[in-house]
């Protein structure tokens, strides 16, 4: 509530005199505490600032299927969607499920794409759990730049394996994520287990 709103409320309603008195001025003054803690993360401006999203011609998710599985970091291919390693993983084994078609949001996906994205997501969870012994997952889609999608122009679903106590001080103190295996190694393990995991 701004100061003008506060004055309007104070004039139109019978409230205690000190409710919007001297205390109000310090409560709404610049730099005065408001009950919220702040975590300043200027590096996330990359997700907020205006920048050009890739078109189909230069989209990494459109380019990957044209490469070999190893070169494209592809774990598995379906009819209308595929699974590939995240180039900037939050955790080891972090994969993405993408439709081949260059669409930006989930509501643009066809019924066949939605069904296969769901199937590949379920199967990827089983394979990752089998290979890595993880204890849980974070799964989600960021829709649009405003929602934090790094590549908002091409729909992709994140599957992030989680382990108990997998957080440590590195991301907070050193802005570094410790990953025990190279992407190529993890991709090869997941791809090998893909067809043998039920």
Structure commentary:
By secondary structure, this protein is of the alpha+beta class. The protein has two domains: 1-38, no CATH class; 54-194, HIT-like (HIT family, subunit A), CATH 3.30.428.10. It contains eight helices and five strands; from the N terminus they run αααααβββαββαα. The protein has helices at 3-12, 22-27, 45-48, 60-63, 69-72, 111-132, 170-174, 183-194, and strands spanning 74-77, 81-85, 95-99, 136-140, 157-162. It has a five-stranded antiparallel beta sheet with strand order 1-2-3-5-4. Strand 1 and strand 2 (81-85) form a beta hairpin. Helix 6 packs across helix 8 (183-194). The longest helix is centred in the middle third of the chain and has 22 residues, at 111-132. The protein is globular.
Report a brief summary of the structure:
By secondary structure, the chain is of the alpha+beta class. It has eight helices and five strands; from the N terminus they run αααααβββαββαα. The protein has helices spanning 3-12, 22-27, 45-48, 60-63, 69-72, 111-132, 170-174, 183-194, and strands at 74-77, 81-85, 95-99, 136-140, 157-162.
Share of residues in helices: 25-40%
The parts where pLDDT drops under 50 for at least 5 residues are 1-10, 19-24
Order of helices and strands: HHHHHEEEHEEHH
What oligomeric state best describes the polypeptide chains here?
Answer: single chain
Largest sheet: 5 strands, antiparallel
SS class: alpha+beta
Mean pLDDT: 81
Rg over CA atoms, rounded to whole Å, is 23 Å
Number of domains: 2
Strand coverage percent: 5-15%
Q: CATH superfamily membership of the largest domain, which one?
A: HIT-like
Please give the CATH architecture of the largest domain.
Answer: 2-Layer Sandwich
CATH topology of the largest domain: HIT family, subunit A
Biggest sheet, spatial arrangement of strands: 1-2-3-5-4
Outline type: globular
By DSSP (H or I, 4+ residues per run), the number of helices equals: 8
Query: Number of DSSP strands?
Result: 5
Question: How widely separated are the two ends?
Answer: 55 Å
CATH class group of the largest domain: Alpha Beta
